[in-house]
Amino acid sequence: xxxxxxxxxxxxxxxxxxxxxxxxxxxxxxxxxxxxxxxxxxxxxxxxxxxxxxxxxxxxxxxxxxxxxxxxxxxxxxxxxxxxxxxxxxxxxxxxxxxxxxxxxxxxxxxxxxxxxxxxxxxxxxxxxxxxxxxxxxxxxxxxxxxxxxxxxxxxxxxxxxxxxxxxxxxxxxxxxxxxxxxxxxxxxxxxxxxxxxxxxxxxxxxxxxxxxxxxxxxxxxxxxxxxxxxxxxxxxxxxxxxxxxxxxxxxxxxxxxxxxxxxxxxxxxxxxxxxxxxxxxxxxxxxxxxxxxxxxxxxxxxxxxxxx
Length: 309
Fold this sequence. Notes:
Mean pLDDT: 84
Low-confidence stretches: none
Distance between the termini: 48 Å
Strand content: under 5%
Number of domains: 1
Number of strands: 0
Shape: globular
Structural class: mainly alpha
Largest sheet: none
Number of helices: 12
């Protein structure tokens, strides 16, 4: 495929553009300090707290997902085998998120007074969500023409799974916010921005496999579904900090991610082998990339190596 494309821009511009925009957003956050004095929010009313958490959720959730979705033209310009590799990379991102949330389930479950209650919540959340989404997927495939695969519909499922995961992110922000820990809130926002920007291409990778580009409102809807629940999680974390609730939300997200991973594999399998060298490599690459962004980079932020605290 040529270096130019239907968007009239060189491929390298399509690849680098979102990175430049991300840098601009970080610079804007540094210069404007949009969260104000979080310590003063301890005496604020519920409405003011929810409004500020909505702003934080917008910046930490929806904005970076939207930036990541700007890679869609670049992904769409790839040859089919490389597009499959990018879809497999998205699978690696999802697999890491599932593993990370499993750790959160164990951590919060250990804090619940009743181990049996925590285990029940985890099993019901994972199994129930998987069963519901699997049933919905089977019904959807039964309504579609035989053999047809819609990348857009799978992208919506990916966005939903990531959105359920984003509730957990919001829980952490909400708890830190009501405790008046401005430094932790800022660091969490920075970490989530870097983490969530990779959720954008994870969502739209399946869409790039379709023959036509869907209307813009689908991208907007998927961005809100994937990143918007950070706001909901922030509200919940500020009003009802509960380890049992955290176990349930994380379990629901794990169940959703497992089902979506099956959908992603099925999407590749429709016209190619799943376990090619390229697909396996990019899957591992997506997993490692999320590890670096989520664990290594976040740890450096929290220890003050990258941002003075």
